[in-house]
Structures are given as C-alpha cells and as structure tokens.
Write a structure and sequence with these properties.
The complex is a heterodimer of chains A (114) and B (112). The radius of gyration of chain A is 13 Å and the shape is globular. Chain A has 114 residues and is mainly β. Chain B contains no helices and nine strands. A five-stranded mixed β-sheet of chain B has the order 1-9-8-3-4, with no helix packed on it. A four-stranded antiparallel β-sheet of chain B has the order 2-7-6-5, with no helix packed on it. In chain B, a hairpin with a 4-residue loop joins strand 5 and strand 6. The chains are: A mainly beta (114), B mainly beta (112). At the A-B interface, strand 4, strand 5, strand 9 and strand 10 of A face strand 4 of B.
Amino acid sequence: GAVVSQHPSRVICKSGTSVKIECRSLDFQATTMFWYRQFPKQSLMLMATSNEGSKATYEQGVEKDKFLINHASLTLSTLTVTSAHPEDSSFYICSAAEGSVVYTFGSGTRLTVV
Amino acid sequence: DAKTTQPPSMDCAEGRAANLPCNHSTISGNEYVYWYRQIHSQGPQYIIHGLKNNETNEMASLIITEDRKSSTLILPHATLRDTAVYYCIVRVANFGNEKLTFGTGTRLTIIP
C-alpha cells in the first residue's frame, strides 16, 4: 500500500531556532498533502493543506509566516517551524492521498522546543 | 463535512469482538464514512470506509444503518495491539484534496 515517510521522528531544538520537517510519499505522487498538529491527549488539528507548485492553504488561526510550507515536488512537502518557542512543542503529522479515497499518514514528528 | 459523535472511551476483553459506534445524523448523500485509528505516538492508520453498504476487510467490518445516520466498526477478535484511539470521519470522496477533519474519537482499551 501507499507509504508516507516523515523525517525526523523526533527533534529537540532551542527556542528561537527553526526546524524543518519533511514528508515524502514513497511510492505515489501526491499533489496535495496535509499537515496536522496534535497536543497531548488531544485530537489531530489540521494546520494547512499543501499544494504542489502553489501556495499552501492555512486553517484559521495558523500563522503562515511561522509555519512555512513548501511543496516543491509531487513527492515532497516540508514544514518549517520558524523561531520556535516552547508552546510550539507538539506532535506534527503529515498525510497524503493516493488517488481520491484513502489518506495515508506519516509516523509523525515529536518536536520539543527548549 | 458532517459532524460525528463517538463515545469517549470503551473497554473490550481480548479475543472478543469490539463494536465501536459512531453517530453521523447530518451525513449527506455523497459523504463516505471513514475509520482511522491512532496507536500512541504514531500517525493515524486507515482501517476501512464505506458509503452505504456494509464493508469488510482484513482488519474490520463496517456496518452502516439503512438511513446512514450511524455506523459501527467491528473488530472481530480484539487483541492487545488494537488498543488505540479510533476516529470516525465523514467526508466527501471525490479528489485527494479534500481534508480529513478529526473529532475526539473513542479510546478503546483491550483488557487481557
């Protein structure tokens, strides 16, 4: 089946630095990928929809200048958390759909900002 | 997309069938019912989806009521590895650019 690879799985960074998270569709092309954030004991919250070759669409309340999304190819989308702060510490998850039906999720990235 | 309602938690004995209910009374005619699960600290895993007919695959069965206002996910022989949060999601299945919106899900605990 379809596989979505997310890297890194875990990252610790200092407050004020930037962190890049990669999401790759390994065996299919994805014109659209999605980025979610999940805080402890909460559900997944959609942050943005990443569209290949065009600007991402952000959900209400998500700062586009802080969470930079680049979808430069049909198999790769990146999320950069800029000037990270401790409140950005969370579990970030990407997903992509092969075709129109089933969405596959990455294994997630645990970001800790110290 | 239509909103779903699930019980916050359920327990099931190992080896028994786990039946997870979902209410989606405002579902539209072109909306599918999807089930995903999330094991702790992992990304969600697709389980099954359906429109109006009952569906079965190697993981589970999905029973959708005739009026489509509710559904039940059935794990026929639950194991400890089925302990997870299960999400019932309703969305239109047309192109792969439609977002999935997660509710609070049901935390299923399999008891040895």
